[in-house]
Design a protein that fits this description.
The protein is an alpha+beta fold and 141 residues long. It has 3 helices and 7 strands; from the N terminus they run αββββββααβ. The N terminus is likely disordered. The protein has one domain: Electron Transport, Fmn-binding Protein, Chain A (Pnp Oxidase, Chain A, Roll). It has a 7-stranded antiparallel β-sheet with strand order 2-1-5-6-7-4-3.
């Protein structure tokens, strides 16, 4: 399913329809594999704090970003560059993921976090999810 959805989302987010199709919560992240040099282009959820983009992932591709790696993003239809790094500290991930899910409540199901009637993430679910995910921080140039 990912092999069908990801290419479709990359085209939508990079095209003229980006503003109507989730670009306030989705971006395209482009980077090269650390060992293989292979190019990756992934649609991923984000939250923006000034010049910093914050994302979360349970998938192993994040290992390519450890230590500060140059990346490109397509953010709201605009191509930007920056440096990505990874945080594995569960205390920081818990705090950040809670804020992220308050901004992007639609992603709660992806992280297996329940929301209350006011769409706030359940703290116990967030704490559990923090152990299964990493935080990816991208400092834009």
């Amino acid at each position: 399913m990912v092999h069908v959805i990801n290419p479709m989302m990359r085209r939508v987010l990079a095209g003229r329809l980006h503003s109507r199709m989730g670009s306030d919560t989705l971006m395209i992240l482009d980077f090269c594999g650390r060992r293989t040099g292979r190019s990756y282009s992934l649609p991923i959820g984000y939250m923006q704090l000034g010049n910093t983009l914050i994302s979360y992932s349970p998938f192993g591709w994040w290992q390519n970003l450890v230590g500060g790696v140059p990346v490109n993003v397509v953010l709201r239809g605009e191509k930007l560059s920056g440096v990505a790094d990874v945080c594995t500290d569960t205390v920081e991930i818990t705090s950040g993921l809670s804020a992220y899910l308050s901004h992007n409540p639609g992603d709660a199901r992806f992280f297996h976090v329940s929301l209350d009637e006011d769409r706030r993430p359940d703290p116990e679910d967030v704490a559990r999810a923090a152990h299964e995910n990493v935080q990816i921080r991208i400092e834009l140039d």
